[in-house]
Amino acid sequence: MSELPLIRLNSAAVLVAAMDKLGLATDDVLDGVGLKRVTFDDDDAFVPALVVYQLCEDAAAAAENPALLALLGESVNTATWPPIQQASANASDLGQLLTRFAVDATEHSSALTQSLEVHGHRAVFYGQRAFAPSFVPAQIDAFFAALMASVIRRATGSAWTPGSVVVTVSEPKALPPFFFGIKAVKGDRRGYRIGFPATWLAMAFERSDFDDRSNLDTRSFPARTAASAVEQALKAHIGEGPLSSKAAAEFCGKSERALSRLLVKEQTSLGEIIARLKRDYAERMLKDTEMPVLEIAQALGYTPTSFARSFKAWSGKTPSEFRSND
Prior knowledge:
This protein has helices at 13-21, 26-32, 49-63, 68-75, 82-88, 94-104, 138-156, 207-217, 226-235, 245-251, 256-264, 270-288, 293-299, 304-315, 319-325, and strands at 6-8, 46-48, 113-119, 122-128, 166-169, 183-186, 191-197. By secondary structure, the protein is α+β, with helices and mostly antiparallel strands.
């Protein structure tokens, strides 16, 4: 790789797919920075980092969404996105996952050096540039901050507490207003930082759980409303046992009252969202797996009797009837 800061172009293919999904004039946006769609399929194609940075800014402008890349970072399927997919293949704990990603990321970019450091009780994962871009790289920094916050959230599961996380980016306004309850701080143009409890690094990493949470998160891009953001934040915790409204609000980094006020404006409630997610989980487990009905009930915090009663209220069938008729 040359001394000029470069980025492997196919790692940015998720942005092209996102623009298409939003119905933007994708090819016009690409033309504006001198890129062609076909180039994103070439594993060996590298372009100057500033070209990708500008593409991110132009995409957000075309979408009229200042948090576009952060929303994309939250929803990237890390089970299939090459830089993370490689890192998660053999990791046994979160520390290994982040360390492997920091190493593997060098194969995809020479523009941003990813690092993990521990300072007492706090760990910091960050990306740092050796240069300061001529413009504020708000979108690319927001993308990586949201992506890595999501990676940590998916890896820690029920241990995730957004109040323990601090994110530093070049422009906090590029993060969505509802950003998992994470505190955002303004930094400089040289990169992003995520601070979190160092004890999380020793948490056992389960690839299957991590991939399941990633697959769930990818369904709701872009999360334009508070309800869709809450749903995205809670999906990773459905199937981990009882989920109270208080615990759900904590996962979202809000008080129950504050979250209720947000959701009332969108004519929904936390209870309705949790019920819908439980129903979707139950139906998916019954359709796609051989998981016993008893275990599905327990995973959702029900007794067998209350699960059967609730499921019939949802679908008009008992769990066994639903499974046998599928």
